[in-house]
């Protein structure tokens, strides 16, 4: 009898185990099906983005990839500069705002006044890159103090010989991002230190115009994001920068390690929290950005963040939703 009871109990336990396993398998299958359905669901809507011209190549690449997955979502990306992007963000004209510097206190205050909550997301690393004309055979490197001497307004016409006596007695032609640019803001912070930019500098929010300016003038010097240098490296000469520990040339390794100091910096996008909560296409797009930004940022010439950084931000996005 005991043997029979033992066999019966064993059979029951086996049955329960089989039932539980089947239920778990079905639940896993349902979860996987739901996940696939969510990932392949075709969305409709419109997303508006503005801001940094430095971040623009990253976001442009993301939008192109996203369009192949979600052709029903219209994503428009403008590049009016970091400052201009935040103005549009504050005015309620955009869902995301790209920036090549952190948001300023006065911009935070204006968003708070409007009752706009937002989340900062890091996308990649950049090295603000100083370039001269390809025919320039005298500039081997520049120190931060020399950069300051070139770019700060002091009432004089800047010549190369003013920087180092052995250099040519020729006027330096300056090409700089416009004052709405986060790249200008960063340069102002670490090089100009709040002093006025040389009045004779040619300004543009379009980095491609700066590239053409330096390319077309033997005595030119300019600066912009690393990706724009890489795209045009056959026509420009990069200038190593001595931040105090010897000259360092920007590349993926020196930018990621911050050895290229003080001109290495993170790049950002800012997203409105309400847009993530109320517009499924915004949530889905931002998720796509964070999942694909590492590869796409390197494709266009920037340096990806550590994987953990993207994962943390994906968790933050889920909490917003």
Automatic annotation (TrEMBL):
CDD domains reported in the protein's UniProt record: PBP2_phosphate_like_2
Topology within the bilayer: Lipid-anchor
Keywords: Cell membrane, Lipoprotein, Membrane, Palmitate, Phosphate transport, Signal, Transport
Domain PBP: 39-290
Entry superkingdom: Bacteria
InterPro entries from the UniProt entry: PBP_domain, Phos-bd, Phosphate_ABC_transporter
GO cellular component: plasma membrane
Signal peptide segment: 1-25
Annotated GO MF terms: phosphate ion binding
Classification via PANTHER family: PERIPLASMIC PHOSPHATE BINDING COMPONENT OF PHOSPHATE ABC TRANSPORTER, PHOSPHATE-BINDING PROTEIN PSTS
Function per UniProt: Involved in the system for phosphate transport across the cytoplasmic membrane.
Protein name: Phosphate-binding protein
Organism of origin: Neobacillus thermocopriae
Classification lineage: Bacteria, Bacillati, Bacillota, Bacilli, Bacillales
């Amino acid at each position: 009898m005991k043997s029979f009871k033992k066999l019966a109990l064993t059979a029951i336990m086996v049955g329960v185990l089989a039932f539980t396993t089947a239920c778990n398998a079905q639940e896993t299958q349902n979860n996987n099906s739901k996940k696939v359905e969510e990932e392949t669901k075709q969305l409709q809507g419109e997303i508006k983005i503005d801001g940094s011209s430095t971040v623009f190549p990253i976001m442009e690449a993301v939008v192109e990839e996203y369009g192949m997955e979600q052709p029903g979502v219209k994503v428009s990306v403008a590049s009016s500069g970091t400052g201009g992007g935040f103005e549009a963000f504050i005015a309620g004209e955009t869902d995301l705002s790209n920036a090549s510097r952190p948001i300023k206190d006065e911009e935070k205050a204006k968003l708070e006044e409007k009752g706009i909550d937002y989340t900062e997301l890091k996308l990649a690393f950049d090295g603000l890159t100083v370039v001269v004309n390809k025919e320039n055979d005298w500039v081997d490197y520049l120190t931060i103090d020399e950069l300051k001497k070139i770019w700060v307004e002091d009432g004089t016409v800047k010549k190369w010989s003013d920087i180092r006596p052995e250099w040519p007695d020729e006027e330096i032609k300056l090409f700089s991002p416009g004052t709405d640019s986060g790249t200008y803001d960063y340069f102002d912070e670490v090089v100009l230190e709040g002093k006025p930019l040389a009045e004779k500098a040619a300004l543009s929010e379009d980095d491609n115009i700066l590239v053409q300016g330096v390319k077309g003038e033997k005595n030119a010097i300019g600066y912009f994001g690393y990706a724009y240098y890489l795209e045009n490296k056959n026509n420009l000469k990069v200038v190593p920068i001595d931040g105090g520990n010897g000259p360092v040339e920007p590349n993926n390794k020196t930018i990621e390690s911050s050895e290229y100091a003080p001109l290495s910096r993170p790049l950002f996008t800012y997203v409105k929290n309400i847009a993530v909560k109320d517009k499924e296409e915004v949530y889905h797009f931002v998720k796509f950005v964070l999942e694909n930004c590492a590869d796409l940022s390197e494709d266009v010439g920037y340096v990806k963040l550590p994987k953990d950084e993207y994962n943390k931000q994906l968790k933050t996005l889920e909490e917003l939703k």
